[in-house]
Specification:
2 strands, elongated
Length: 238
């Protein structure tokens, strides 16, 4: 088989030329294979990928059965329940970005470069977005258990008749001071985390969002009937 030495620019040009001539699903498959090839070549060039990591990237994680089968084929002793287990190394409390399942994700575009621009380093090739390996930065911020927003609704008064025309609150705000999320957070702190009402009152006072203990009780009591059907269903399932 004849070997062709093609640069990334030449392969990108071939993809661009082939796109209008191929069915969309066929082109998507070919593009995925080519992008994966670029990733493997780059990792090998940077010497940051082990063979085990490349195997997982290309073929996916192996199952327990395949690991046992491969161990038997290679002549290695199979692990049994009697075999001593290796203790896991402590993680020091570090979590990767994938662990923050409810975190808000913000896409940050490059300030000076876009997909397909000429490389400012070598001035010969073009730069292409690495969709599978973006730069990840996890930023954890602090906030109070309950936040407050003050809406200053403008009022206009007629100079002749004295009639006042107030502005309406924003859509979805409503007239209630404490919304459903506030009630859920108070109940979660008190009954899920064992955080007394008085202690939450002190915490909220320290951050400038007052929340009296008696008010907390009234909020939870008012929200309890809406949760009763869920509680009864959980008891039935148990």
């Amino acid at each position: 088989m004849e070997r062709l030495d093609l640069s990334q620019d030449e392969i990108e040009a071939a993809l661009t030329a082939a796109k209008p001539r191929l069915p969309s699903e066929v082109y998507a498959t070919i593009e995925t294979v080519v992008r994966a090839y670029f990733t493997v070549v780059r990792l090998l060039a940077e010497k940051k990928a082990s063979l085990a990591r490349l195997r997982r990237m290309i073929f996916g994680p192996s199952s327990e059965k395949s690991r046992v089968a491969l161990a038997g084929q290679e002549g290695r002793p199979k692990k049994t329940d009697a075999s001593p287990s290796r203790e896991a190394k402590p993680g020091h409390g570090r979590n990767g970005a994938a662990a923050y399942v409810n975190a808000k994700t913000v896409r940050v575009p490059h300030a000076r470069l876009a997909h397909g621009d000429r490389c400012p380093g070598c001035r010969r090739g073009n730069v292409y977005e690495q969709k599978d390996r973006p730069g990840i930065l996890v930023r954890v911020t602090g906030q109070t258990p309950l936040n407050a927003t003050i809406f200053e609704c403008e009022k206009l008064r007629c100079g002749a008749c004295g009639k006042v025309f107030p502005a309406r609150p924003p859509e979805g705000v409503g007239r209630r001071k404490y919304d459903e999320r506030a009630a859920a957070m108070i109940a979660l702190f008190r009954y899920g985390g064992g955080f007394p009402f008085n202690r939450l009152t002190k915490l909220q006072g320290c951050v400038g969002i007052p929340l009296p203990a008696s008010t907390q009780w009234d909020i939870v009591l008012d929200a309890a009937p809406s949760c009763a059907p869920v509680f009864e269903e959980l008891k039935r399932l148990a």
